[in-house]
Specification:
The complex is a heterodimer of chains A (about 525) and B (about 500). Chain A contains 22 helices and no strands. Chain A is an all-alpha fold and about 525 residues long. Chain A is globular, with a radius of gyration of 24 Å. The chains are: A mainly alpha (about 525), B mainly alpha (about 500). Chain A: One of its GO terms (cellular component) is endoplasmic reticulum membrane.
Amino acid sequence: LIVSKTSVLSWSSAAFLLSFMNKQHRSTDFEVHRNWLAITHSLPVSRWYYENTSEWTLDYPPLFAWFELGLSQAARRFDSDMLLVHNLNYASPPTVLFQRLSVIFTDGVFIYAVRECCRCVREKKGSRDVLSRPSFILSVLLLWNFGLLIVDHIHFQYNGFLFGFLMLSVAKHLQSQHLQGALLFAVLLNLKHIYLYVAPAYGVYLLRSYCFTQDNKDGSLRWRSFSPLRLLALGGLVLSVCAVSFGPFILMGQLPQVLSRLFPFRRGLCHAYWAPNVWALYNLLDKGVATLGVRLKLLQEAELPRASMTGGLVQESQHAALPSVSPAVTLLCTLLSILPALASIWRRPRGARGFLRCLLICALGSFLFGWHVHEKAVLLAILPLSFLAVESREDAGIFLVLATTGHYSLFPLLFTPAELLIKASLMLMFTVFSFSALRNGRGPLLRPLEVVYLLGLVAVAIGCEVVFPLSPWQQRLPFLPLLVTSVYCAAGVCYSFLRLYASQRSDAHTWNPTRSLQTHTHTHTGIPSYPR
Amino acid sequence: MQTWCLVSISVLLGVAVRWGVSLNSYSGAGKPPMFGDYEAQRHWQEVTYNLPVQEWYFNTTDNDLNYWGLDYPPLTAYHSWICAYIAKIINPEWVELHKSRGYESPAHKLFMRTTVLVADLLIYIPAVILYCFCLTEGSSGKKVSTLLCFLLYPGLILIDYGHFQYNAASLGFALWGVVALGLGWDVSGSMAFALALNYKQMELYHALPFFCYLLGKCLKMGLLGRGLFLLVKISATVLVTFGLCWLPFLSDPSQGLQVVRRIFPVARGLFEDKVANAWCSLNILIKIRSILPSDAQLYLSFACTLLAVLPSSVKLLMKPTFWHFKLALVNSSLAFFLFSYQVHEKSILLAALPVCFQLDEIPLVSIWFLQTTTFSMLPLFLKDGLLVPYAVTSLAFLYFSIYLLSALDHCSEDELRLGAYRKLLFFLPKMDLVWITKWKFYISIAAMVGLSIASVAVLPPPHLPDLFPVLVSTTSFLHFLGTFVFFNIVLFSGPPDRKSQKKTN
């Protein structure tokens, strides 16, 4: 496995570089996780979800809290002062060192997952050059993923660790080890509940392909093949994981409190910086209609709600002209957006790759329509899509559009002028690599309009990062670049969503059930194509 | 994958690493009253912007030469002057006469770091790309690997972007000179090198090989025919370049003399601080500075340097090929570093540049040497608070270079150029020289790691406060001496036989 060794080692040097070179960046997430370390270490379990000395209360599921408790055992040896709950905004050099190292070491899970994924890739025949081997390309696309690198190693979060579980679970499904895949996903859900976004895909797929053991000849469901034993095993597995995680809190009667921490609907529709999703477009439309209305004297300026969406600073906000959106509406929209994909894999599962595609649609659908979505959540679609991208050229085209826009939308995370060059060069590196590696010396992957759109992204980048700070508008409209970025990127993400749907439809038409059987047995007899 | 993609990825990686280092501290940050090299460069901007050219190098009421007086040749001064103009546009406080002394702010740091990067991107990096693609052999994959290792050499990055200097400019000009000579453009090559000399007088370390190579070439072409014509062309180019650079100082002889006096400060002694050269290492055993008068020290170092440079220069004069030229550059710059007068620890970068040229041919020794050069500057990095970038870039460089250039796989006796050693050691029983070399490499890397950790973590005994810097400089000195001998032997054993090289490949 020289291939993955290469990229792992180069990844680790990159991670080290990023983590330690960047002394300037200290995000709020730094303090968030320090606070959680302190809470889990110095308070009894019963206080964990009630503690509110810091504004950054514990709002991840219990398994993550246990994980923090484990980390805090090591943290004690670095600097025990960081484990005091009242020690707010504490960031001594050993604390920073410990936090950075903890991200790097827990990323081991991700590296292992990438290795497993690389084993499942269908190798092309006759490609001897290491650089053009799909498994190598996949390992670089995952390990050097721009978004993951900056979010984890510069901004600070444990996404690598969490995505490790997701990718490992996907790999297990690709290897037809469904129970392991389900177990891993259950663990993941109890680590961070954002992965509920993709849970519908898991539910439908496992029910359809694991609990029903046989298909009809045309690929449709054979009801009689239902295996209650399998359903029982699956349900038992998932429930026991949840019992371990939530059990103590249920016994203490704290479940409502825990859930209220996990799902804080009091936050607004959009995050301070709008994630590039449908609601960003909706906000813009609202703004446009309001302005137009005032111009045409249809609306009274005084009647409009104050502090509407321009700032993005305001958490709870109302729309001026269009109806305001409630959490229930976003939930409904999300469900509607993913329903056709779920129905499609229910009718014809199309193997683990079909499941992966459905997972992507779920991830993107909830990203586009969800309530209070963070821009970082786009990684949930970009990372698994890398797998499909190295296998098919059509998916590669979707990947290029989605990854480029999604990654660019992460730019505002690093906002100081000194960091501009780091983020730009890393992003360019990843983009140049993905374009050239996926194209692999053959025809263009993108349609002309997509090329124009991505070139427009360059113009947006130059405008927002270079021209705007020097222009006089900076004082009057400080949030304009953020608005432009989210709206422009929202278009690309929506487009990728539609293309994913289109690819699923064409997949459904060309799908041949006998081929699925072949690949199925193939994976059983041995993992097909080991990279050397 | 297309080559241009790989090249751009390498360059972007190089830029990202450079910029990552530049977010760290610089020399003399927040340390009044003298600060460090960062303040020196800022001060030069202040002086060159506000004072007339005639006063730049003179001690006047407005120009206190004891406070970071200008002591580099005119091209550096012009560079500072251009930077000062841009600084003035952004924020006039940065270059205000007298008042700006010791000015520090995040925005100013960003500006200064950007000037370094601009110089690097304009001069050094294009030359490296050109060198790797036009003057190295092998597949395009190998060329890209060499390029990446060349760009990731930590010593230069840490000094330029951490400590703060503009070595990429002077070394870049020298590199352009080498590239031009390699491509056969002798006249433009000598012009580029003249610019390098006018940027930093330390480029004299490289001067002798340039001189011998060009002279040897002219001699070979026949001093009475085309050779003479070439010689005249080259000398005219050099003279004109120098003349243009020194134009403002030529009006008055006292001006020119003052510049020369500032550039070559003989009064500063044989060596300062802890340098990994012969004199400083000898100082542990014999206190030369107290035994010999300063004149004698000067002559002694001059004689030793000349003696050390002579063999490779003569060889180059007889055989002026590009292969010999590259090796002579290594030997000459190392000889100057080891034996000449008033050497700074940063001058090892001048020897590191030509060793980078050997990365594709003799990877193991080159990587080993380059790593040692970085290590030899450890005390300086610790003083500047650059420990983490030092550790990270060194590890990254070691990993990338050993892996990409497969330094530890391709090491037969031929590839390591150990044939001559075998002949020299004929009286000893037969040994596996390759095996010994590899183990020496491992042990020395382990020693460097150990000393680096010890310098940081262990308190030296009270009666030996300088224990670790001395150990670092002595260890590095031994490495440098070994490398110096090695490259001299390689130069004298001649270029590798093409046929045997193909066979081993």
